[in-house]
Amino acid sequence: MSSRGGGPAMLSHARITVALGVGQLIEWFDWTLYASFAVFFAGSFFPAGHGGETALLSAFAVYAVGFLFRPLGGVVLGHLADRFGRGIVFNLTVLLMAGGSLAIAVMPTFGQIGIAAPVLLIVARAVQGLSAGGEMPSSTALATEAAPAGRRAFHSSALFVGSGIGVLLASLLGWLLTSTLTDAQISGFGWRVAFGFGAVLGLVGLALRRSLMLPEQAMAQQPAPRPAGRDGHALRRPGGFVGTVRTHGKSVLRVAGFAVAATVGFYTLTVYMSTHLQVEVGMHPATAFKVNCIMLLVYSVLLPLSGLAADRWGRRPVMGWSALAMAVVLVPCVALMSREVAVTLPLLLVCFALLGVFHGPFPALMSEQFPAEKRGLGVGTSYSLVAALFGGTATYLATWLRSLGHPLWFFGYVAATFALAAVTMYVIPETASVPSDPERPADGS
Length: 445
Known about the structure:
Blueprint: H1 7-45, H2 53-84, H3 86-106, H4 110-113, H5 116-146, H6 152-156, H7 158-180, H8 183-213, H9 217-221, H10 240-247, H11 249-281, H12 285-313, H13 315-336, H14 341-359, H15 362-367, H16 375-403, H17 407-427
Helix pairs in contact: 1-2, 1-3, 1-5, 1-7, 1-8, 2-3, 2-5, 2-16, 3-5, 3-8, 5-16, 7-8, 7-12, 11-12, 11-14, 11-16, 11-17, 12-13, 12-14, 13-14, 13-17, 16-17
């Protein structure tokens, strides 16, 4: 297919890109629902304890369970994507995420079935963790392989565009329900409405995704090819998690070097920042919500522009300079924030803009570290482990340091992850012009 000539080829690329973005939107919409409504449904699954704090802590402990299962989902589903094809797996991930939301929506309470209620909640979150861990590897691989030459970063930026819009829509749903229902109504049935809506959105998104993939579905279902040896037969390489780490260990470390900042930065700005604005800065909750929505819109718009820049000038300068700038300005920007929107908004704009520039080429760069036949498992291994170890602990670490009276220490930690990313971008080879094919040697050798 022509990569730049327009017509059916460009329409094909665009449809695949939109389909992948829809999947990320659904994943992050459903994933965000739990954190957004935990304060309302915690008492339904756990004993209230002292003032409800025990129930809420237990609910957030279950929230962490999803992160623990992300590496398993990345390894297992990433391997399936390499073995049986990208299309099968990223349709499966949407079903798992929507199924988890549906299960939570109809789940009996602790008062009805006792200890079985939190056990079932844990199972539902584990399923969603598997889904979240497997979605990024398969979608990243397909986005890279299906994109036209010279446009891999632009097309793969749709993954984070979908993530940002998913978080935004979940926040808007929370605002809508809290504006129209009382706290008692939300705690009674409103949170079930939210999870039910997430399940329905998942099924609608799956149908939309499948329709967008046609007639490209046949291509998406094909397993990634293996490179051939001199005798014409496919080369056999060590398989599974251990084989991937052994054969592509340098690539796994490279991804970890810049993925830590990508995951910690995302959870800090999109998930935790609104809490920081309310608790530490003293901003009114409604104002903090509006500011966060504005920032998410800015972030989502910048992602494809950053991808275009990385396709033209390379991944290293775009991601490297934005990471270095974030490492320098993040702590001062947070320290200067106040409840006055006129002061805080431009400071947040700087941080979200730098995050958007850094995230735009991120999926493409991850994928380009691995050959096609190990791309799903390679990304799944490295990214999912980083997301579980660093992304999943970000909000807890921020809350703990705030309780000790040192809220800025957490943002210093986030700045350090971007400094690590800047160093990583300095030492890794440029991959913008490297063909996305299975013949490319692993680890750039």
